[in-house]
Amino acid sequence: MASAFEYAPAPESRSVVDIAPSYGLFIDGEFTDAADGKVFKTVSPSTEEVLSEVARAGAEDVDRAVKAARRAFEKWSALPGSERAKYLFRIARIIQERSRELAVLETLDNGKPIKETRDADLPLVAAHFFYYAGWADKLDHAGYGPNPRPLGVAGQVIPWNFPLLMLAWKIAPALATGNTVVLKPAETTPLSALFFADICRQAGLPKGVVNILTGYGDAGQALVEHGDVDKVAFTGSTAVGKAIARSVAGTDKKVTLELGGKGANIVFDDAPIDQAVEGIVTGIFFNQGQVCCAGSRLLVQESVQDELLDALKRRLSTLRLGDPLDKNTDIGAINSAEQLARITALTETGEAEGAERWSAPCELPSAGYWFAPTLFTNVTQAHTIARDEIFGPVLSVLSFRTPDEAVAKANNSQYGLSAGIWTEKGSRILAVANKLRAGVVWANTFNKFDPTSPFGGYKESGYGREGGRHGLEAYLDVR
Ligand code: TAP
Q1: What's the pTM?
Q2: Which residues contact 467 (CB under 8 A, 6 or more apart)?
Q3: Whose CA is nearest to atom 38 of ligand 1?
Q4: Oxidoreductase among the record's keywords (predicted)?
Q5: Ligand 1 binding pocket, CB closer than 6 Å
Q6: Partner of 95 at 20 to 30 A CA spacing, among 104, 243, 246, 279?
Q7: CA 474, CA 465: separation in Å to the nearest integer?
Q8: Predicted local distance difference test score (pLDDT) of residue 143
Q9: Measuring from atom 30 of ligand 1, which residue has the nearest CA?
């Protein structure tokens, strides 16, 4: 059974991170107040405790940061790739050395279980910097012809679901290719980006190469609309992504957009059921389902539906929800009160439209933002919960009879980011994967990431690829 939450704040793990009462913006190698002196608070979503107060950037600060990045660009882009690589390798090693501190910090600010920040987020963050460090002196051999050039200043805006990992996806390829960066983290998770700024200083990175602007959506908007930004990289909601695409239309800014998803996890009747159950759990309950490539739609072949759902419910009943700093916790807090309200509203719509709700039996803590692992059956393709991204620990279950029907249902989405296939037949994996309109297709696994693999979407999931050799292209002027 899931444990009741008693917030014994695991003092020994909390003490590995020293969070200051306030932080400034990181511009031109220095921490500085916002020009208008504005600040905002960041809270721990598992306790609602205020963790720190951080500066809130405005348009003037965006301009200062872009100017600093522009000044730094000339020297940074002229460095030999092997020199830039040294900085990136140094950053990667410092991240490894400070990984315990960063994992606890990320868990406090985001609410996700320490098991995930320790074993998934932080190793992937370091791996990303190591991987792109390796490319810095090999750009002439990346398949873009001789002498690919950096674009200039990259304006990068990231969400709250993987704060440090999204930062790594954005900053590592940008720096490896010789660009300089102004990055705005999400307002609910500013802290790990500020600790990363400290790591840049520790690594001796030249000032102005990386600038961090904590703030709200208006700062993100001012950044992407700034006239001296050459490249925009955005990860977040489809609505904001569309607004950004509109705002840069007619300029020569290069843009990559990583937006929402409604991934189908397809289980065929020959799949090993226990393994598939684990993959479904990873697919939708990892990071409380706040994952753009989550397997939020389960498509199960009719003949094994009952067996699979019984096994899945049994497994979900064993998940432990509670203190994210506890190493045994499987399900942490939802990132914010707003996100919890969105999840709650969508699940209410699911019930109102006639789907059948089942939630894992667990007690929710009284403080903080929590949602029990939930699944819906009797879901049709027309239901809102089968179409809209919920971005929470909620699975919508649909069934199918034939592989063609599975493909048709999987592709019946405005999104096209991810999909999963569970079957013993290799030929079926290849046949089905080729028909799926999804940027990432996992076979007999889910939510596996690697810096060498390109990641990105079709349709309203955005465009451009991050990761791998493909991720370099977004930051290069290929002549
Ligand atoms: P967004 O509102 O899109 O926020 C993403 C980032 O963009 C944040 O840093 C945000 O700042 C900033 N931003 C907001 N408005 C902007 C604008 N007009 N111009 C430029 N930047 C702007 O997403 P969210 O509020 O974090 O989450 C909302 C929904 O987006 C979720 O429910 C989920 O469906 C989806 N989402 C998708 C992903 C991925 S990975 N595809 C990740 C997160 C969320 P603030 O933090 O200050 O708003």
Answers
A1: 0.96
A2: 169, 449, 450, 451, 452, 453, 454, 455
A3: 236
A4: yes
A5: 157-161, 184, 186-187, 216-217, 220-221, 224, 235-237, 240, 243-244, 258-260, 292, 342, 389, 391
A6: 279
A7: 7
A8: 84
A9: 237
